[in-house]
Prior knowledge:
Blueprint: H1 9-12, H2 15-42, H3 51-65, H4 72-86, H5 93-115, H6 118-121, H7 124-147
Amino acid sequence: MHNDKFVDPRLQEKEALFQHLHMVSFDVIMHINAIQETVQATSKDIAASNEHYKELVRSFKITLAMCSELEPEIVTLIEATKRILSDDSSHAFATQAQICAAAVNSLNHWRILKHIPEDLLQIDEISAILKQRFTEHLAMWDGYFAIHKTNH
């Protein structure tokens, strides 16, 4: 007997994009873990030249370029993130990296959700975990500004 489930063709055609965005999440985790290990080992902030930091900032900029028609709450977080990245003295580079990581993961989950047809978004079996993860990443992203009392 086959245990194959039916997958809506509209989702199948987006599978490559979904896999790519999922892999980006693993890259983000790898970069942020490397930064955290460096900070813990040295008890100092990372340098702006840190390759993992640079990659997270790059990933944020690339991901942002691929997003359109964002909700006002997300636009506000993006603008706050850009302000922090433009002022090296405002936050430690490790914190900036964490903000970029949360932003990239939030935006990529948002992108996945935007590619799922509306009727399928209403089916919890399809979208509940994605919605939950998006909400968690968004709260984490927003939380950096609340913790540091940064206007956004």
